[in-house]
Specification:
The complex is a heterotrimer. Chain A folds into 2 domains: about 220 residues, Rossmann fold (3-Layer(aba) Sandwich), CATH 3.40.50.300; about 120 residues, RNA polymerase II/Efflux pump adaptor protein, barrel-sandwich hybrid domain (OB fold (Dihydrolipoamide Acetyltransferase, E2P)), CATH 2.40.50. Helices cover about 20% and strands about 35% of the residues of chain A. Chain A has 8 helices and 20 strands. A 6-stranded mixed beta sheet of chain A has the order 6-7-8-3-9-10, sandwiched between helices. In chain A, helix 3 packs across helix 4. Chain B starts with a helix and ends with a helix. Chain B has 2 helices and no strands. In chain B, about 85% of the residues lie in helices and about 0% in strands. Chain C is mainly α. Chain C has 2 domains: about 55 residues, no CATH class; about 220 residues, Orthogonal Bundle (MetI-like fold), CATH 1.10.3720. Chain C has a two-stranded antiparallel sheet. In chain C, strand 1 and strand 2 form a beta hairpin. Chain C is globular and about 70 Å long. Classes of the chains: A alpha+beta, B mainly alpha, C mainly alpha. Chains in contact: A-B, A-C, B-C. At the B-C interface, helix 1 and helix 2 of B face helix 5, helix 6 and helix 7 of C.
């Protein structure tokens, strides 16, 4: 499936970060298990996964704060083995922001420049430029302790960007902000990345954050990289149940394999009948059984006498109201688990009585086979 | 720099050991005091000192 | 509140005022601190007032003349012996606090940054020597530095010197060594505490921005631990100026400090007013010196940027 990248700026195909067979073990525990990844120049790349999946470990190894037990990391073609964090072409935005409390905003931003021994006006110009990039113009003299959470976040960004790194690493930069500010910063961060064209590597456990900002996402579980793909593909075609589950709701349907060839699968299900679907890359056949998945919003309520080419009929057992959408739990005869359906409230989905019969339309394309 | 980083904790820990030895010096030699009358039974300095106070 | 009180008889107003006075935060606060406050007043302020009062009087044998005079201060500030003693005390206390802080910092740093799981064990190890009495520890330094002492015997045994050195004991160096040892823990602990408070990600951030270990230490760790360094310096400096036991025991002729003179005035010389004037003078000068120390360290902290 060909994806249109979220960025409108043409991207190069040059590899910026090459991670090859990296393992990081603490005793018998493997925080990162044989991970390989290549991140392109100018890309907004996210490492997504639950806490303890090894995403932060990987980020810290790119920054140089941790060293791989085995394997290698290269940035811009240069192997990073033995190069300390202070000599790497990467800069980091820390989760806690790590703003120097004894310095004001300007001094914080200029911190890394001091070592470069620039001319005073050149240094000042770069600091001003960086502050403007994060919309903090005029706050240069403010003490770090007088800033709000959002402002501290911007200072941390400006302090890293002013160094003009090849790679900017962001360790859960938005997790400490409230929901509204977080959503605003997502847009700003994305816009900023587009403007400066630096490779961004973001670590997050928030799937919406990753989906909204990234060009590509690596989903990680238990120290392993489960899938690397564009947000759309990750969301629509998760390789396994774990990935599907982590990225929002997914209805799982048991299926029986009828036919298997190179690229596709034909399966029989009780609720959805016979379905032909793309075969996921990591698919390993386990007897004749398979699992299909369909996102709740890909099931649409059929009103009154409307019909669709593909539909299933059932009964509403639960209804949950979420403002702009309603969440329905629908029992389908033959399916061992009820389906969850997300419907917008434009047509009155919030008024469907519990217990009412209901018909749902679906697109067979939306049914995806996945590994368990 | 890496060399300094590796060297520093080593240097620091030997310093710490020396410092602790310094702190324990009086405690180590305290028992001698009870036998030796302060180690300066017949010192010229003591006489000088005594004549002054 | 005011509207309700307007129509009431004056008595009710007074009553309301009293209860509002009792409920006011300031009064409640005073009530809460009053035991401590009284304690401080009786044990700290009162004795100082007595000393200050005495410094303006004169004494003739056993009777105190209560007429106001500045004569004592004239003597305290102009007599060469007191000037010299005061100067020496300040020099010794400054060197002791400087030396103590310089020696204590690396070990506090070591425990805080490389102590790992054994931080409390290290701190425990450091406090153990201070469980023995101060007097015994000073005596023990006599054993080490004395004419037939450990150091002399050791050096002679090694063939470095032929006869015992008398330069070790009974001088200001001996006082400095002993005091540096005696106040070590009091310097290590505040520095350790302030180092513990330094957010480690700040050091990482400095490294990330290009600083090597030494630079990040000088630009982040050291300035952020300045409060600990200041309190360590003050904790050592202020009491050592007035130390009396150490110079008496290991100081000899060259190690006599102002406190010994003050003690002599209150004791053998029986001139309480002069002793009081010397005390007040010392107190004022030490306060000034402490203030100057704080300012200097703050200025150095600013310089580190």
């Amino acid at each position: 499936m060909l994806e249109r990248s979220q960025s409108d700026r043409p991207q190069s195909d040059r590899t910026m970060i090459e991670i090859r067979d990296v393992t990081r073990s603490y005793g018998s525990f493997k925080a990162l298990d044989n991970a390989s990844l290549s991140i392109r120049e100018g890309e907004f790349f996210s490492l997504l996964g639950p806490s303890g999946c090894g995403k932060t470990t990987l980020l810290r190894m790119i920054a140089g704060f941790d060293t791989p037990t085995s394997g290698s990391i290269a940035v811009d073609g240069q192997p990073m083995d033995g190069i300390p964090a202070n000599r790497r072409p990467t800069n980091m935005v820390f989760q806690s922001y790590a703003i120097f409390p004894h310095l004001n905003v300007e001094q914080n931003v200029a911190y890394g420049l001091k070592r470069l021994k620039l001319a005073a006006d050149e240094e000042k110009r770069r600091v001003e430029e960086a502050l403007a990039q994060v919309s903090l113009t005029g706050l240069g003299k403010r003490r770090a302790t007088e800033l709000s959470g959002g402002q501290r976040q911007r200072v941390a960004l400006a302090r890293a960007l002013v160094m003009r790194p090849k790679v900017l690493l962001l360790d859960e930069p938005l997790s400490a902000l409230d929901k509204k500010l977080r959503e605003q910063m997502q847009v700003e961060l994305r816009r900023l990345q587009q403007a400066v064209g630096i490779t961004f590597v973001l670590v997050t456990h928030d799937q919406y954050e990753a989906l909204a900002m990234s060009d590509r996402i690596a989903v990680m579980f238990g120290g392993r990289i489960a899938q690397v793909a564009s947000p759309k593909e990750i969301y629509q075609r998760p390789v396994n149940r774990q990935v599907a589950d982590f990225l929002g709701g997914m209805n799982f349907v048991k299926a029986e394999i009828v036919e298997e060839n190179g690229a596709s699968l034909v399966v029989d299900t009780l609720g959805f009948g016979r379905v032909k679907t793309d075969k996921p890359k990591a698919f390993t056949r386990n007897g004749g059984a398979a699992t299909l998945g369909i996102r709740p919003e890909r099931l649409r309520v059929l009103w009154d006498n409307a019909t669709a080419k593909f539909e299933v009929a059932g009964k509403v057992v639960e209804r949950h109201y979420f403002g702009e959408i309603t969440h329905l739990i629908v029992e389908i005869p033959g399916l061992e688990r009820p389906l969850s359906v997300t419907e917008t409230n434009d047509f009155g989905a919030d008024d469907i009585p519990v217990g009412a019969p209901i018909r749902l339309a679906y697109d067979p394309e939306a049914l995806v086979a996945m590994a368990d | 720099m890496t060399a300094i980083r590796r060297f520093l904790p080593g240097w620091l820990s030997s310093y710490a050991a020396l410092y602790i030895l310094f702190l324990y010096l009086p405690v180590i030699f305290l028992p001698i005091f009870s036998n030796q009358h302060g180690g300066d039974a017949e010192i010229p300095a003591l006489r000088r000192h005594a004549s002054l106070v | 509140m005011t509207a309700a009180a307007e129509g009431s008889p004056p008595l009710r107003i007074a009553g309301a005022r009293r209860s509002s006075l009792l409920q006011s935060e300031a009064v409640q606060g005073f009530a809460l601190i009053s035991p401590t406050f009284a304690y401080a007043l009786i044990l700290l302020v009162l004795p100082i007032l007595v000393v200050i009062a005495h410094s303006f009087w004169t004494q003739d044998y056993l009777t105190i003349d209560h007429t106001f005079t500045l004569e004592n201060y004239r003597i305290a500030l102009t007599e060469p012996i007191y000037r010299d003693l005061l100067w020496r005390s300040l020099c010794i206390s400054l060197s002791v606090s400087l030396l103590t802080v310089l020696l204590a910092y690396p070990i506090a740093y070591f425990i805080s940054f490389h102590g790992g799981r054994h931080k409390s064990l290290w701190l425990f190890l450091i406090t153990i020597p201070f469980w023995t009495s101060y007097l015994l520890r000073v005596m023990s330094w006599k054993v080490i530095l004395g004419y037939n002492g450990v150091l002399n015997s050791g050096l002679m045994g090694l063939g470095i010197i032929d006869e015992p050195s008398t330069a070790l004991l009974y001088n200001s160096t001996a006082v400095i060594i002993t005091l540096t040892h005696a106040w070590a823990t009091f310097a290590i602990l505040p520095i350790f505490v302030s180092l513990e408070k330094v957010d480690r990600t700040l050091v990482e951030a400095a490294t990330d921005l290009g600083d090597g270990p030494l630079r990040s230490f000088l630009r982040v760790t050291l300035p952020l631990s300045a409060p600990g360094v200041i309190s360590a310096a003050l904790i050592v400096m202020i009491p050592t100026v007035g130390d009396y036991v150490t110079p008496k025991l290991v100081g000899g002729k060259d190690g006599v400090m102002i406190a010994n003179a003050i003690q002599a005035q209150f004791g053998k010389a029986s001139n309480w007013p002069l002793g009081a004037a010397l005390s007040v003078t010392t107190m004022v000068i030490v306060s000034l010196m402490a203030g100057a120390t704080v300012l200097i360290i703050r200025a150095l902290q600013r310089l580190a940027r």
